Amino acid sequence: MQGSSVSKALVTPGEELGVEEEYLPGDNAYVDSGYVKSMVLGIAEWDRVNHVVNVKPLKLSLIRPGQIVYGKVYYFPNDKVAMVRIFAVQHQDGVRRIQAETGILYVTYASEERLSTIYDAVGLGDLIKARVLSSKPPYHISLRGPLLGVVETRCPQCRAVIVPSTSSKITCPVCGFVFRRKVAAS
Ligand SMILES: [Zn+2]
Question: What are the residue boundaries of the Exosome complex component N-terminal domain, all occurrences included (predicted)?
Answer without folding.
Answer: 10-43
